[in-house]
Amino acid sequence: MKRDLLSLHDLSSNEVAHIIDLAIKLKNSGSKITNHLKNKAVGLLFQKPSNRTRVSCEIAVWQLGGKCLYLAPQEINLGKRESVADVAKTLSRYLDCIVARTFSHTDVVELAENASAVIINGLSDLFHPCQALADILTVKEKFGDEKKVLMSYIGDGNNVCHSLILACARIGYDLNIATPKKYEPSQDILNMAQGIAEETGSKITILNDPEEAVGNADVIYSDVWVSMGQEEEDKKRKKDFKGFQINSDLIKGAQSDYIFMHCLPAHRGMEVSADVIDGPNSVVFDQAENRMHVQKAILTFLLGEGEK
After folding, report:
1. Would residue 10 show up in a list of annotated catalytic residues for this protein?
2. Among this protein's residues, is 130 annotated catalytic?
3. Does one domain contain both 71 and 145?
4. Which of 50, 92, 173, 249 could connect to 116 by a Cys-Cys bridge, CB 3.0–4.6 Å?
5. pTM for the whole thing?
6. Within 13 Å and on the Cβ side, how many CA atoms surround 11?
């Protein structure tokens, strides 16, 4: 029976840990070509433009010995030129896996409900699970397994934030989230994570004060204030998020060996100052690289051979 990855709620805590360990193993093996996806075909079904997701997936599939196809927005026009269900059923006749990057999470769910191919959420308005797994890999590389990590996320309670909530709950990290009022993450997702957090010892705290959130933080994380599809809110969001920029003043309360993380693309001078994102504590390009290693681990776990 196929396994899909629509959010980190689809994985157990042990499976999240296994995928991270597998990503480390694959990363340490270098760029050698394996046969984990031999005779497997993966399609990238994207409604949004992409840098890291597309390239990391294409290289991951190639290094795993599979074939990857990029399906541009204008080629498929998901849900408009053809229904989501028909696209899912048709592509399943050709592909073993579909990585979907959509505006609406309901499209990812509908794809999964109608496809016999494995569906991986490459980004939706609700979740970004592959990014969060790469984030956990990056933190583990920097701090190991022994430290009780405190992450501080400053910004919009968006898809990246939602996936970090579930990732930290699964792995046992503490997470402080600071957003302006009315930009808090989904209460449903917080409720979903709370039961997991009780089992793993994770503590998730929602705040509206960034200074309080970064106190003693090991990791400070930011994302854009205006995501794709929210351009009409640009002026209002810039006003509402004033005071939530991660800069040299804000980070004073963090641990001296803190790391700064951002899923990219970043806007220097908005959600983060240039001296922070380009400074010695920034690991944003380690994160970006780790997207590829995590994609390899996810693909191998869900449909590969020999590394279950």
Report:
1. no
2. no
3. no
4. 92
5. 0.96
6. 28
